[in-house]
Amino acid sequence: QVQLEESGGGLVQAGGSLRLSCATPGRRVTDYAMGWVRQAPGKERELVARITSGGTTHYADSVKGRFIISRDNAKNTMYLQMNSLKPEDTAVYYCYTEGHWGQGTQVTVSP
Known about the structure:
By secondary structure, the protein is an all-beta fold. Helix content is 0%, strand content 50%. The protein contains no helices and 11 strands. The strands form 2 sheets. Strands 2, 4, 5, 6, 9, 10 and 11 form a 7-stranded mixed β-sheet that branches. It is globular.
């Protein structure tokens, strides 16, 4: 059973920053590809960023230059640093790996 424990969401003003964390207890974050998706009300789930086991990153065009995906193997944790946040970034953010999903964390960006 793969556990994904997300944290770090919240309410922030436009232009602000948040860092999301996705902990994977007992599982090395470098062993598998991992990523973040988000889903806003009434919209389809959207891939935000992903990182391969080898460390190659990919970002949605909408977040390039603002978001950074990273991981810390010593802490078994993946991160999503979100800068210059916009109201359109408001969504529930989920981390995922190998068909497993976290519970989601709400990010709300006020104008």
